[in-house]
Amino acid sequence: MTIELYHILVETTAGTDVIDITDRVRRQVEKSSVRNGVVSLFIPGSTAALTTIEYESGAVHDLERAVERIAPANMDYEHNERWGDGNGYAHVRAALLGPSLQVPLVNGRLTLGTWQQLVLLDFDNRPRERRIILQAMGE
Description:
Layout: E1 2-11, E2 17-20, H1 22-31, E3 37-42, E4 48-53, H2 57-70, H3 78-83, H4 88-97, E5 100-106, E6 109-110, E7 117-122, E8 129-138
Antiparallel strand pairs: 1-8, 2-7, 3-5, 3-8, 4-7, 5-6
């Protein structure tokens, strides 16, 4: 088995960002010698998450609204009282969606659905440079 490591850097803003990373991931997979296996994606940090969605403005807006309903930014969070950084909502949102994804790799291609894209969600209340760790594992 082969394991190859890559990094993807993404600049974010001080709001809920939903960023399509599909092409960036594909470019890294194209560099890999792994043809069949799995691509594992992980984002370090506790205020960002990874998921999939049909990346079109309606679905993205619906996701942003759903996340706001589940963990409203203007709610009281004990984290904010303890640390004073005002991003308690970001930690809750990221925890609910999770920091990682796995996508099967078949014949050197990501096995995504026709309308399925990989997205980074950054919930923090300040701009960040996010580093996504990508591992291609297999044969």
